[in-house]
Amino acid sequence: MINNIADQVNKIEARQVEAKAMLTQIATRAANEMFTKMYQHPDNFDERCYRGLGCAIAAHAHWDGIRIMEIFAAALEDANWHTECAIVLGWVETQSGLK
């Protein structure tokens, strides 16, 4: 009986791993399709680039808002916008405390 329960637990865990992999593939495909559509739109090339980059960042961060803000803060720091970076990091700290 214990072996049967262990087998069932192993099957459930394997299904969870498969489901997570499938969801990751679906999310990646959706982000890629959105990114492609942005680049095909005829209006305002710069805006499409920024939006496409934003979609790529969101997908890379697995749509985690805190992680996206951390990436944004890193970009601000790299651009020597240290005051603004500190503000964003303050938001991250505030939001992290709410989780």
Task: Explain this structure.
This protein is an all-alpha fold. The protein folds into two domains: 1-62; 64-99, no CATH class. It has helices spanning 2-40, 45-60, 65-78, 82-98. Helix 3 runs antiparallel to helix 4 (82-98). The N and C termini lie far apart (40 Å).
- SSE pattern, N- to C-terminal: HHHH
The low-pLDDT segments are: none
Count of extended strands: 0
Shape: flat
Task: List its traits.
mainly alpha; flat; 99 residues
Produce a short descriptive summary.
It contains 4 helices and no strands.
Give the arrangement of secondary structure elements.
Layout lengths: L1 H39 L4 H16 L4 H14 L3 H17 L1
Helix pairs in contact: 1-2, 3-4
